[in-house]
């Protein structure tokens, strides 16, 4: 059940981040990948600044924040 919930949260986080940053999603698989990597990145960044998230909503917020950061970093790298 944890894997399925993680994929759902990852997909939702990727979709939200895609809509916040460039106005559209990245497709189902792209949203899931961006959300999962963003969740990891968000967890690392939140841990470094001393924040913790709990529950489904906390995981979603962390994943969205990390996914937005990931999209920002990739956008800056691609412009070079």
TrEMBL record:
- What's the protein name? GlsB/YeaQ/YmgE family stress response membrane protein
Q: Where in the cell is it found?
A: Cell membrane
Q: How does it sit in the membrane?
A: Multi-pass membrane protein
Task: List where the protein spans the membrane.
Answer: 28-49, 56-75
Q: Indicate the principal place this protein occupies in or around the cell.
A: membrane
UniProt keywords (A-Z) are: Cell membrane, Membrane, Transmembrane, Transmembrane helix
Family the UniProt entry places it in: Belongs to the UPF0410 family.
Entry-linked InterPro entries = Transgly_assoc (IPR007341)
């Amino acid at each position: 059940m944890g894997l399925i919930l993680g994929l759902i949260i990852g997909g939702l986080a990727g979709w939200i981040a895609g809509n916040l940053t460039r106005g559209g999603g990245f497709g189902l698989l792209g949203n899931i990948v961006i959300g999962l990597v963003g969740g990891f990145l968000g967890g690392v960044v939140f841990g470094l600044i001393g924040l913790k998230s709990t529950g489904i909503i906390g995981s979603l917020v962390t994943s969205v924040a990390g996914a937005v950061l990931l999209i920002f970093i990739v956008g800056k790298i691609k412009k070079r």
